[in-house]
Amino acid sequence: MKTTLLTSDHYTRSTWKNGGGVFTDIAGAHRADAAVKDWDSLLWRFASTPIVEPGPFSFMPGIDRLQMVVGGRGLVLKAPGQEFDEREPFTTVRFIGETEIVTELQAGPVEVVNLMGRRGAVEIELAALRDPGDRPLPAGTHLVYAARGDCSIRLDGEDFAISHENTLKVELAEASTLALVSGLAVLGSIQLVG
């Protein structure tokens, strides 16, 4: 097990693929053989971003996306023939990057976290940790993000305190157990395929 504390002071910023806003990049990975780290070489990315006005989402072919509102409320993603309901905070929605989406804000701006993964290269999960208790973690990379105030977790019997908007990156070679001790956290999980 390897743990790394990622602090908000060291997060980077990058423009949305369609130029409509700015991500706060928390963690990510690109293909090792890529000469340039860009959208084409992206394996996965965990980021937060404000959505302050209605508008289109970026077109991201080959990317699976998970999203969750962590600040504000009332977000609905509109797509042809369907909608993704994020009116309540800490609800995860899943969609593919090819989906034509336009946002609807029903109660003002929101802050969201996104976990994106290259289809066929990684499998991704995104969940809110609200209640104390054990949760199994498979081998892979896990990100525990303190989205709303400080939180603490226990990982294989060791306690970790995570300050507001910081992230604990956990790299596991084998399965483990995580327990939320206090606060509220967002857990992003990434497993390489193959």
Automatic annotation (TrEMBL):
InterPro entries according to UniProt: RmlC-like_jellyroll (IPR014710), RmlC_Cupin_sf (IPR011051), Uncharacterised_HutD/Ves (IPR010282)
Domain of life of the native organism: Bacteria
UniProt cross-references to Gene3D superfamilies, sorted A to Z: Jelly Rolls
Alphabetized SUPFAM superfamilies for the sequence: RmlC-like cupins
Protein name (Swiss-Prot/TrEMBL): HutD family protein
Taxonomy of the source species: Bacteria, Pseudomonadati, Pseudomonadota, Alphaproteobacteria, Hyphomicrobiales
